[in-house]
Amino acid sequence: MDHIVTHEQTKPNNTRQLLNKTFQKVAAAVLITAITAFAGNYAFAGVFAKFSRSISGAIIFMVLMFALISQVQKSIQSRQAKRGTKLFYGLAGLNGLFLSYIFSYFSLGTIGASFLVTSGLFLALARFGLTTEKDLISWQKGLFITLIGVIVLSLFSLFIGTTVVSLMINIAILVLFSLYTIFDTNQLVRRYERISHSDIEGVSSLFALTLYMDFINIYLSILQLLGNND
């Protein structure tokens, strides 16, 4: 009987540790991105701005990002969780350098206000995803189809970049990744209710990566919407 009680007490503790570690890593990654973005702008003012806003620069960045994401996933799947975590933080740093262009296009006030709005929205969405009693796995297919549509629309906007199209894309990205934040946090607790202590490091890095990308996409869409007058 004592053994059963001990097991039941361990399960919620592991879940709580998983949640704490996941959001700690998300916060650390966002901080790394902010620091490297500021440092990149300070040390190479204008260089990253031109690179980031060019089609060739965007393609190179996307290739590097997908390569790092793939390496993070492979490391964790091969039980090299610490290596996966280090690569995740490296990805956050690389993303910060790429995003240093925002200092050339938006005021510090807009950048700061967008961050505060994003942080509040992200935490509210995450809380909803964690506390809702429903399993939102049924959202997965619809979210993926919508993501493909947004990507296609974004590529289309490279050739026909009107203000209306840009506004539609930013609103679509904001809504999509807001829903993804709810879905990802929901699946974090729904799929890993019985996680073992040894798996916490790897699983927390995988979900931290996903939630970090949700946060960044929400932030950039809000930045674009608030920064139209900059």
Automatic annotation (TrEMBL):
Ranges in a coiled coil: none
Family matches, as InterPro entries: Bax_inhibitor_1-related
Matches recorded under Pfam families: Bax1-I (PF01027)
KW Ribonucleoprotein (keyword) present: no
Segments passing through the bilayer: 26-49, 55-72, 84-103, 109-130, 142-161, 167-183, 203-226
Subcellular compartments: Cell membrane
Keywords, comma-separated and alphabetical: Cell membrane, Membrane, Transmembrane, Transmembrane helix
Membrane disposition: Multi-pass membrane protein
Top-level taxon of origin: Bacteria
Cellular component terms per the entry's GO annotation: plasma membrane
Recorded family membership: Belongs to the BI1 family.
Name used for this protein in its record: Modulator of FtsH protease
